[in-house]
Design brief:
Order of helices and strands of chain B: EEEHEEHEHHHEHEHEEHEHEEHEH
Number of helices of chain A: 14
Shape of chain A: globular
Number of strands of chain B: 14
Oligomer: heterodimer
Largest sheet of chain A: none
Helix content of chain A: over 70%
Distance between the termini of chain A: 29 Å
């Protein structure tokens, strides 16, 4: 486990060694704030909760998480440092997990910095803090799902821009499969189990469950297995693309 | 001399293309093996397989007795590797990078500090150690890469073009370092600088199109040159037919070539025989005035071309 920790330290350091990390955090905070107050009508709703904040996260993450994930492997492949990394006496899975956890921790930092909003809600009214904590956990776990997809796709290419776009597209598919528009498209002709399957694959359906304040084991298992499957695929992609 | 690296029938195919074709050799402790060959001959591919980066198509390789496929982690612990082009994390400072490498190699606390300090000292990186690697000159980058490879004092060092892009002073420095470390390690360096082979290597392996075309000492390599042990005579005046026929009279002389517009003669022996003594005696006896008289060691360039083009 100490190897993974060494990788996490280096990767986190790499995020903060350039201004990019700070730019990302600022954009995340500004965007999530703007969406909450303007699109989400935080004040006009007249309710002491953070639903208008969290409900935009699936859409916000659609672009921001691929941006965090794109460099994870593509940069290593481009610079050739992947050759160093893969010849260190460390199993590949520890590298994959280390990089993933570092990026996830970075997102956790960005998410944690939204705490003033939580304070504001508590100042203005008596929100159900249990729901808010559940929502934070849900948002964080969902971010992990997006991130695992992004990390896996980052290993496919040397080009970070391609990694970003591909990851955004794949995340979009997972997001959209829960939207009513897509469901309505399948409803008239697809058998119910296909409909269920499509809906159950969606980030949105599982996340909406959590932000209502219900941490259902199924939702947690869903995001957990998304992370597991894509990190497993990530390691496989790395082995397949060695030397190319 | 025990075998630290042994490669047996190693083969790598990329689709229909065979990059490395059934290569076998072993390297013992104390050996510095110069791995020669034109670009694309399969030098780097072979090294990448031995270090565990590339999967092996056929054959096997082991490092210190550990198979690089089945006991990959144990094998990798024994190896210090400088990949081609010395890739590094440009955003880190040299010190942060070496600390990272030390931690990856399992060192901590005072031992980590000691290892890092040693590596910095050996490669004389003190002056740049706190600067981001991206801002360093090519020579310093290469040296940071070397520091990374030797940090854990590995039994086996695999260096892909360690002196590529360095100036003559830096080349000398790196070669001195390699020679210093050679006594208790097995070192493989790839290069296409032939002077490097005679300067640091105890053994040369030449590969072309994925096959070994030569395996022997650097002396044996230069002995393959057709002009090995030939004698060059630079005459004060232009060469006359008389001098040529006198030289041709020596039994071991195969032929005489006129070079550099007439006043230099290249006396080529049969089968690389030693003829300098007889030639110099003849020059003295006949009273021929010469400016220079020396033995050719054989042009490695020429040997290299012949070996690799005929393959």
């Amino acid at each position: 486990m100490s190897n993974t920790w060494v990788i996490i330290k280096r990767e986190l350091g790499a995020y903060f060694s350039t201004p990019l990390a700070y730019v990302f955090i600022v954009i995340f905070l500004a965007l999530s704030g703007a969406l909450t107050f303007f699109m989400g009508a935080f004040f006009e709703r007249g309710q002491a909760d953070m639903a208008s904040f969290f409900s935009f996260h699936p859409w916000l993450y659609l672009f921001l998480i691929p941006a965090v994930a794109m460099r994870l492997w593509a940069e290593e492949r481009k610079a050739g440092t992947v050759e160093l990394l893969l010849t260190f006496p460390i199993p590949t899975w520890q590298l994959v997990v280390g990089k993933f956890l570092a990026a996830w921790a970075f997102i956790a930092i960005a998410l944690a910095l939204t705490f003033p909003l939580w304070i504001t809600v508590n100042y203005l009214g008596q929100p159900d803090n249990g729901v808010i904590i559940a929502s934070y956990i849900g948002s964080f776990v969902m971010a992990g799902g997006y991130l695992a997809i992004g990390s896996c796709i980052s290993a496919v290419t040397k080009n970070q821009v391609i990694a970003f776009i591909l990851a955004a597209v794949v995340c979009f598919l997972f997001l959209m499969s829960g939207v009513e528009l897509v469901q309505a498209f399948f409803q008239p002709w697809a058998p119910p189990f296909v409909l269920d399957a499509i809906q159950s694959m969606s980030f949105l359906s599982h996340f909406n469950g959590i932000i209502r304040g219900v941490i259902d084991l199924r939702d947690v298992i869903y995001f957990g297995s998304m992370i597991g499957v894509f990190l497993f695929a990530n390691a496989a992609v790395i082995d397949l693309t060695r030397g190319s | 001399m025990s075998s630290m690296i042994s490669i047996d029938g190693l083969t790598k195919r990329f689709g229909p293309f065979t990059a490395v074709d059934n290569i076998s050799f072993s390297v013992g402790s104390g050996e510095v093996l110069g791995f020669l060959g034109p670009n694309g001959a399969g030098k780097s591919t072979t090294m990448k397989m031995v270090t565990g980066y590339l999967p092996i198509t056929a054959g096997s390789a082991s490092v210190c007795g550990f198979d690089v496929v089945n006991q990959s982690l144990d094998a990798r612990k024994k190896v210090g590797y400088l990949p081609e082009g010395a890739p590094l994390y440009g955003d880190m400072s040299g010190l942060a990078f070496l600390n990272f490498i030390a931690e990856i190699r399992g060192f901590s606390g005072s031992e980590k500090k000691q290892r890092v300090d040693q590596a910095i000292e050996k490669l004389q990186l003190q002056s740049v150690i706190n600067k981001p690697i991206d801002t360093l000159s090519k020579g310093f980058k290469r040296r940071v890469g070397l520091a990374q490879a030797i940090l854990h004092d590995p039994d086996v060092l695999i260096l892909d073009e360690p002196t590529d892009g360095l100036d003559p002073n830096q080349k000398h420095q790196v070669r001195t370092l390699i020679k210093e470390m050679a006594s208790d390690k097995a070192i493989v360096i790839s290069t296409h600088l032939l002077e490097e082979v005679s300067a640091v290597c105890t053994r040369a392996v030449v590969i072309a199109q994925g096959r070994i075309v030569f395996d022997g000492s650097p002396e044996e390599l230069s002995a393959k040159s057709p002009v090995h042990n030939a004698v060059t005579i630079k005459l004060t005046a232009d060469a006359t037919d008389g001098i040529k026929s006198d030289l041709q009279g020596i039994a071991e002389v195969d032929r005489i070539e006129t070079v550099n517009g007439g006043n230099s003669l290249l006396v080529v022996p049969k089968d690389g025989a030693q003829i300098i003594e007889k030639v110099s005696l003849l020059v003295r006896d006949k009273g021929i005035e010469v400016d220079e008289l020396y033995v050719e060691r054989g042009h490695l360039d020429q040997v290299f071309r012949e070996l690799t083009l005929s393959a």
